[in-house]
Design brief:
It is built from two helices and eight strands. It has 166 residues and is an alpha+beta fold. The N terminus is likely disordered.
């Protein structure tokens, strides 16, 4: 009888120590917090974007975010937001806030001269590097909305966009 009382007491102590150890080692689910360098209107959803093949470390890289609405994609005043970060040679990384978890489309361009406009030739062709979410082919023109749709079901995901220069 004395032995089982000691055993029960020992199990309670072991359970308490295990619970304390779990709290001390952060076994308790902690909320995921966005990094301080995220840009845009603060929300509970953010996306890391790595823009590759940046040919110069001058100017800005602009991120245009579109909601899951084909009729607003690449239309003047159709985007949810445009965010800009300083360009870095090779790869420019950014963390951007999104309004909520969901599906979006991203268009990115390297604003080499920093004039906050996408420079085009007299024929309307791009003069600066550009890219889209999912890196669709753009040889025959602009990609379809379906090709650039990007699902962001939770915060903290990473996507890579490769720039193409004329």
């Amino acid at each position: 009888m004395k032995h089982s009382a000691v055993a029960r007491h020992g199990l309670r102590i072991a359970g308490a120590l295990a619970a304390w150890a779990c709290i001390a080692s952060t076994c308790v689910a902690q909320p995921l917090l966005p990094p301080a360098e995220c840009v845009g209107e603060v929300s509970d959803t953010w996306l890391y974007v790595a823009v590759t093949d940046v040919r110069k470390g001058t100017g800005l890289v602009a991120f245009t975010i579109y909601d899951d609405d084909r009729s607003r994609f690449l239309v003047k005043r159709g985007s949810l937001a445009v965010m800009r970060v300083p360009a870095q040679l090779g790869e420019t990384r950014a963390c951007i806030f999104l309004p909520r978890a969901g599906t979006y489309a991203l268009a990115v361009y390297h604003d080499e001269d920093g004039n906050q406009a996408f420079n085009r030739s007299g024929l309307g062709l791009p003069n600066e590097g550009f890219g889209f979410s999912n890196n669709p082919t753009t040889l025959a023109g602009l990609p379809s909305f379906k090709a650039v749709r990007l699902s962001v079901p939770k915060p903290g995901l990473l996507t890579r966009i490769r720039l193409k220069y004329p």
